[in-house]
Write a structure and sequence with these properties.
disordered C terminus, alpha/beta, homodimer
Chain lengths: 398, 398
């Protein structure tokens, strides 16, 4: 499946939750499959922290051939014949405001100054993103969505869709998500932000003006993130206490050297495999991700809390939803644990909503939502075939 | 209980596990209680990352009055009438090599250069610390210990004592510890170290020569540490999703302002209480802790792995131990989980050692080992009264 991103320009100002106004902005999006004549088969996919509109398919090179390793981030779930089958559904991926992957964000030019927005880009919330996504769907002539789907922060947007636009969402698929962040989640975000903000190359968020990038801070932020996306078990299985120099020497057949290198007795060199892996992840990330975007997106995560205006009562907060729901969680996900998904399930049942819930016994931690665990994918496939594909009359309470 | 630290100078070189030799060094220590005539009531307490020889009691001001807030770090556990009763036991706290609290470490002068050791201070291991502690006990004329006690990294030293000097330890009390670090533990240490090492003020570990201190890195390291010392539950209970500016305005009785400040919509200001707490902890720590010491101690944690020379077989590794054991773990400790203590219990039982094990249902995470949970303290008290106080003949297999 060869895909091409598109861009829509919005000239009407967007008032954000903070009160700030974005005078004009662009949103980049991709679509897969074909919108039917009734415009009733649209499925919106919301992305998480380190992702974009490029949800599925591959990009083409100059000769129209698929570029290697250009698959979208949920390509194992979405495509022809896949659990979310693009032969049946018209799937839309939209890059969120504030991103560094195409839609208007801190690296773009602030029309008021003629310079990059940098730290002056206004804080955006989950609700703001959903609002902007709805405007884009208006432009595409899509008034109602067969389903909204998202994992992690994308799941928060999915939940928010059912509250902000209850009449426009028939089904909501919320994977590895939560009704808000715990104090521990906020704490991890805060440490990552402090690492970025206290990097001397950050320059108050205006590093582009200074011709620098706060790569040190981004590296640390990404390393922290990576630890929390994996489970302790899968880390032990993948890396354990393996010593990198020893492994390398052993692979080269030099066992004497391997033994000599068992421990290097240093504090700054890579000694354990897990260190090498984390440094590599941090280095890669710091080359392509924008620091101000990282700050904005983690803050949107911190803020999200639909129960806030209902004295913390999630059941009262979710009373506005009209969609049918599928929630999926993963047993070893300690960042968005099954208990958090169950809170949402309970609050929806309190409101007599139709809810399906799958708790998948997977070893991969939070990352599991991006992997192709067969039970997880079977649950999503079955939900789309049996529930989302049902005729509107029997499938929708709206 | 007023206490005074003492210092012992060692002029005999100490060969470290890495092969490096420390030509001469000082160890700072404190003692509480009185050594009996048989020299049989000595209890050694080993300290963890952010602690020292100052285990119990208080320091005196110029008038001999106790200084406020000068209590030792385990003062709730150790003292007259306390679970480890200094009316009966002669308790010894020793500051480890490489520390920044008095014993020879990276901030001390390297005799070879006349300058501070800095990053050139040799890497020390748990085994090196135990070796140095044993030398100090030699000087005090103590050939056998009634007990060695330690929590966390201190528990690793305790375990190591029973393997390096099996004939010198009658009882080992290992609290909230593990037979080695998991990959996840090493990963958190590595992120903390990268934050320090990539701080531009680190200067390859020779910041003292440059008149700087890598405070930014230390702050991040401490924030990461703090998250992992607490449980998710206790963080939620203490901080939840409370907004700091809102709380402050509400406390000042200004509810309109409180509502206005509900969210500030910033990425760098403190908005949530947990952020304020973490920043404060990081700031405090960066004022008194030495960065090279942080690197050395976390590396000692990473390295510790007595099963390493036994193909990962912990039972084989612990076969050398002759002591009786008490292990204590805390249900919400996700850094040194009960499962890790149970591994030690199982390995000791495989060797038919006498083992007591208490798994305390405490909400406080890893930090619980420093708090005065009554069930935990009762278990330690009972063990000392019933087991350690037993006559040597019935209590020791050595």
């Amino acid at each position: 499946m060869i895909v091409t991103p598109q861009t829509l320009l919005f000239d009407t100002p967007l008032t954000l939750q903070s009160g700030a106004v974005l005078p004009r902005y662009e949103l980049v999006y991709e679509t897969y499959g074909t919108l039917n004549a009734e415009r009733s088969n649209a499925v919106l996919v919301c992305h998480a922290l380190n992702a974009s509109h490029h949800v599925a398919g591959r990009y083409a090179d100059a000769n129209g051939q698929p570029l290697p390793r250009s698959e979208g981030w949920w390509d194992n779930l979405i495509g022809p014949g896949k659990p979310i089958d693009t032969q049946r559904w018209f799937v839309i991926g939209i890059n969120n405001l504030g991103s560094c992957f195409g839609s208007t964000g801190p690296t773009h030019v602030n029309p008021a100054t003629g310079e990059a927005w940098g730290a002056d880009f206004p804080v955006v919330t989950v609700e703001d993103w959903v609002h902007a996504q709805a405007r884009l769907l208006d432009q595409l002539g899509i008034s109602a969505l067969a389903a909204v789907v998202g994992g992690s922060l994308g799941g928060m947007q999915t939940l928010s869709w059912t509250l902000q636009y209850p009449q426009r969402v028939r089904h909501a698929v919320v994977v590895a998500s939560a009704p808000n962040l715990t104090a521990e989640n906020i704490a991890f975000n805060e440490v990552a932000r402090r690492a970025i903000v206290t990097d001397p190359d950050f320059h108050g968020g205006h590093y582009l003006r200074h011709g620098t990038l706060p790569r040190r801070g981004l590296r640390i932020a990404r390393m922290i993130g990576h630890i929390t996306y994996l489970s302790d078990d899968v880390m032990n299985e993948k890396f354990g206490r393996q010593l990198k120099p020893l492994n390398e020497a052993a692979q080269a057949g030099d066992l004497d050297e391997a033994v000599r290198l068992a421990y290097r007795y240093t504090t700054q060199d890579v000694e354990f495999q897990i260190e090498s892996y984390l440094r590599h992840q941090g280095d890669k990330f710091s080359e392509y991700f924008d620091a101000n975007t990282y700050l904005l997106i983690t803050r949107a995560l911190d803020y999200f809390d639909p129960a806030r205006h209902h004295d913390g009562n999630l059941s009262a907060a979710l009373a506005a939803a009209r969609a049918q729901f599928l929630l999926v969680s993963f047993t070893t996900d300690w960042r968005f644990s099954p208990a958090r998904s169950r809170e949402v399930v309970k609050a929806l049942l309190d409101n007599r909503r139709d809810v399906s819930y799958a708790e998948i016994d997977a070893p991969h931690g939070h990352d599991a939502f991006l992997l192709d665990d067969p039970r997880y994918h079977a649950a999503v496939r079955a939900y789309f075939e049996r529930q989302v594909a049902q005729p509107l009359a029997s499938g929708n309470r709206a």
